[in-house]
Amino acid sequence: MRVKELIARGSLVALGIVFVVMFSHCRPFQEEVLPVRSVCCCFLILFCLIVSVLPGTAVTESAVPELSESVFMPYFRENFITGVMKSHAGGDICYAKSKADGEAGAVVVVDGRTEFMAKYAEVFYDLRDSGFTFYIYDHRGQGGSSRLLSDPQKGHVEHFDDYVEDLQLFLRTVVKPAQQNTVFLLSHSMGGAISVLHERKYPGMVRGIILCSPMFSINTSPFPGILARTLSRGLRLLGFGARYVPGGGPYDARAAFQDNALTDSFARYELNRKYLTQNPGLSLGSPTVSWLDEAIGALYRIQNDTTPIQTPMLLMVGDDDRVVGQKLQKEFCAAQPNCTFVLLAHGRHELLMEKDQVRDIVIAHIKNFLNRDSR
């Protein structure tokens, strides 16, 4: 959310008091009394105007952790109910749904690899007045859902289409029975690939799709993409599919902010790290060889399928995204009859967890898209 909106009023009140005190102590230096008091008033008015239009600053960003504990997380806990559904191939899928039924329809969050429901508490708070019912679920093998291997830190999947079928089952058995006729998908990264594959397999099931940094390609550095595919396929055929990808390992809570490629927001990066430290069962490490092989195969399908998607889409990506890039995302959107492409300056991979000057724009685009296409 625009965190400065929560603190601006308090700041203005405090600053106002300071300047009023200054004003009241302006001594009547004979004929100079009017100019002196006028200067005090001008400073007060000017400062208030400046504060009211300033974008998020470092001070604003630093307020995020405190607001998460006092505003975002309490809102999520008090306004959402949780449930469990059985995945199409067995295992539990944990989900949450906002208690209030929105008249505008439903928004289903399809998040990225390693993510979990509570991470989106701030997003739900931002969109609380949009008139929608919100749903979110943890993908198989991550978050609070059933893990697929004896080592719960491994990000694993046997078939990428399992993700697609889980989404279809969630829509059909949880969302649609609540008579949500207007349904949007709000997806991030891996969730974007899942959403596009779902739309191709079950066209017209949703009213619109919002794609934030969709995973249409993967940075497999230091290996070129073709070598990564060959390596992962070969290792899988040799029976090493359940092993971490080369160089991978469990989640590292000590990873330094300056080395991350996900977000430029130190406050939100630290908030996520702190939450996972307090809730280690939600953390997830590197993907397995099987996950990488399946993911690359899914991306090839997205890239090579030229069938146009008629459903309205909003695709947003940062110009500093070093995880999935921008080139294939732009080409994909340009090939669709009803896709809006937005390139965010200074945006990294996790646009919904970015600094306010990027994130505010993302939230505004989401609201506009939902308002426009829900009519």
Please describe the topology of this protein.
Blueprint: H1 4-24, H2 33-53, H3 58-62, H4 64-79, E1 80-86, E2 92-98, E3 105-110, H5 121-126, E4 132-137, H6 161-175, E5 183-188, H7 190-201, E6 208-212, H8 225-237, H9 266-278, H10 289-304, E7 313-318, H11 327-334, E8 339-344, H12 356-373
Helix pairs in contact: 1-2, 6-7, 8-10
Structure characterization notes:
Helices cover 44% and strands 13% of the residues. The protein is an alpha/beta fold. The chain has an eight-stranded mixed β-sheet with strand order 1-2-4-3-5-6-7-8, with helices on both faces. Helix 1 runs antiparallel to helix 2 (33-53), helix 6 crosses helix 7 and helix 8 (225-237) packs across helix 10 (289-304). It is globular and about 55 Å long. The two termini are 24 Å apart.
What attributes characterize this protein structure?
375 residues; alpha/beta
What is the CATH class designation of the largest domain? Alpha Beta
Query: Which series of helices and strands comes N to C?
Result: HHHHEEEHEHEHEHHHEHEH
Cα shape: globular
- Point out poorly predicted stretches: 7-59
Mind telling me which CATH architecture of the largest domain this is? 3-Layer(aba) Sandwich
Average predicted local confidence, pLDDT: 87
Give me the secondary-structure category: alpha/beta
Please indicate the percent range of residues in DSSP E strands (runs of 2 or more): 5-15%
Number of domains: 2
Q: Helix segment count? A: 12
Estimate the helix proportion, in percent: 40-55%
- The spatial strand order of the largest sheet comes to 1-2-4-3-5-6-7-8
CATH H-level superfamily title of the largest domain:
Alpha/Beta hydrolase fold, catalytic domain
Cα(first) to Cα(last) distance is 24 Å
The main sheet comes to: 8 strands, mixed
Round the Cα radius of gyration to an integer and report it.
24 Å
Number of strands: 8
In the CATH hierarchy, the third-tier topology of the largest domain is known as Rossmann fold
